[in-house]
Amino acid sequence: MTSVLFDLDGTLVNSSPGILAAFHFAFERLQLPLLTDKELSTFIGPPLEVTFAQYFTEKDDIDRAIQTFREYYNQKGVHQVSLYPGIADLLEELNRLGYSLYVTTSKHEPMAQLMLTELGIMKYFKQVYGSTPEHFHKADVIATCLKDHQLPLDTTAIIGDTKFDMIGGKETGIRTIGVTWGFGSSESLKEHDAETICQTPQDVPKALQDLQ
């Protein structure tokens, strides 16, 4: 492997406090059925467009729901986040080993950049790719990164914690590594064709080496 695409939420950072608070705010404001944190946690990972399409059919209503979520998240939720233990050391190690690192996330791109900057790890990444209104599925985000940097598919891997990362990797033809410290499960990652699974950030360098 020469290039590594990292998912953000649930892979690099524990962003659940801010995301859950934003969903609670949005659901109450939009008068949707109130859900528990456990129920809302299933919405961490998929694009907001996909989540709110479960409650609304009209695009204008979905857009309004997303804006309501971001009303809270952009002001408060983006700051309610922490790095997972071992991530800073992992990024330092991969940088030392010469990997080209990118972020490919379904999060709104400006918020992803702000989060990485505040956490002090923006310096490790060549570029950060997030969702846009036109391209919000993980495969779309990955494809944009691959195209912009002309990355070879057979030496590029996506590292993520949910099935959406594995699906996005498979759809774009790159290698897939699942991690279990985030919001997904080992079973779900395996079901969606993760080539290997890491239990801790310390496992990642060997996993990348084994994919060679």
TrEMBL record:
The protein's name in its UniProt record: HAD hydrolase-like protein
Pfam families: HAD_2
Keyword Hydrolase set for record: yes
Keywords from the named record: Hydrolase
Annotated InterPro entries: HAD-like_hydrolase_sf, HAD-like_sf, HAD_2, HAD_sf, PGP-like_dom2
One GO MF term: hydrolase activity
Keyword Protein biosynthesis: no
GO CC annotation terms, alphabetical: cytosol
Top-level lineage group: Bacteria
Coiled-coil residues: none
